[in-house]
Amino acid sequence: MLWLLDHAAAPIRYRAIIEVAKPGSPIHEQVSSLPFTHIPALTLALTQGHDGTWNHAMLSLPSTRAERFEGVGTINAVRRLLEYGWDKDTPPLIQARRVLFRLLAEDEDPEYLFEAGGKQAADFDLARRARGIFREAAAAALAQAGYEGDPRLRGAARRIVERVASYLRSPNAQKPFVRMGNQHVLPPEAAPPSIYALQMLAHMPLFRTEHHDAMALIYQHLST
Q1: Under 8 Å CB-to-CB from 87, ≥6 apart: which residues?
Q2: Spatial distance between the Cα atoms of 64 and 5, rounded to a whole number of angstroms
Q3: How many distinct helices (H) and strands (E) make up the chain?
Q4: 57 - beta bridge partners?
Q5: Which residues make Cβ contacts (< 8 Å) with residue 145, sequence separation at least 6?
Q6: What is the structure's pLDDT at 119?
Q7: Which stretches of 36-123 are DSSP H helices?
């Protein structure tokens, strides 16, 4: 712990104090300002667009030639700022949460396909799949930000878990892949737990307790 405080980057020092040491007294101003002294975090925050997104994308990653965060998507940017120690009530995260909460809606609005839009938006199945992925990824980011108690997130999480649990209880979960041409693929109705659904659940301990039956199904599925 002392070595981290002496040698680590500002976000790691901050999180070591807040999440490991967990001081009981009010945090000193010098400690609370640590996340905002980290140049990469400030650089990332300043590249946010006026609409609250980064690059009008959600899950895009910077190219291998990017020097910093060029091309990063909103969900990845939000999660990175959270990992840098930025609070959910800091201006960039407040500005981003509107679009993240909007993504939780169960609709197929093409306006919210972002990088999955364009010519691909004409493919209904692809658009539906993309919206589902964005929905779960947005839920994961909001859960990580600390919105577990928000009814909008809890409603989306409940629908996601119910969909996964229904699939895991069905015979399709025993033999999930179907043959299409020379490949084995998941059918459109398949709903195994995605990495984003698992990330969402990881940050929602109370929700997991309330839905322990579904958690047992997911645990059994992952174990096998």
Answers
A1: 93
A2: 32
A3: 11, 2
A4: 54
A5: 78, 82, 88, 93, 97
A6: 64
A7: 39-46, 74-83, 91-103
Neighbours of 116 (CB within 10 A): 21
pLDDT tens digits along 65-109? 888 899 999 999 999 999 999 999 999 999 999 999 999 999 878
Q: What angle do CA 10, 13, 14 make, to 5 degrees?
A: 85
**Both tokens assigned to 175:** 């033999």
Say if residue 180's pLDDT is above 90: no
pLDDT exceeds cutoff 80 at 26: no
Find all residues with CB under 8 Å of 53, minimum gap 6, and list them.
Answer: 74, 96, 99, 114
Across the strands, what pairs with 180? 183
How far apart are alpha carbons 214 and 102 in whole angstroms?
25
For 161, the token pair is: 């878990």
